[in-house]
Amino acid sequence: DISQEPFFRSLLIAAYRDRLRCLKQRSNVSIPRMYGRAMFGIIDESRTLQYGEVFIQHTSNSQLESEIVLGYVVVTKNPCLYPGDIRVLKAIDIPHLHHLHDCVVFPCN
Description:
Layout: H1 6-26, E1 40-43, E2 53-59, E3 66-68, E4 71-76, E5 86-91, E6 103-106
Parallel strand pairs: 1-6, 2-5
Antiparallel strand pairs: 2-3, 2-6, 4-5
């Protein structure tokens, strides 16, 4: 069994310790591609969104169809240095914002 071979096992342990160090020191948590993406943030000039709400509509990589995200989402800044850089917001559907794709629309108030 290759997992019991000493050199390979030492590589696995080193990788495990490095990942654990990243989690403990930097709060560096990796998110699978299917659950997250990098987007630009823009403001809602129509003033429809309330504090704590966002509008998100994204396109998939395989199709040109858009999907509107509904429910609670976690939004972070980049770089994410402080606990306040992570926010839990409610994604809602606003029909007159459907022309906006692949961005996060934040309220301006």
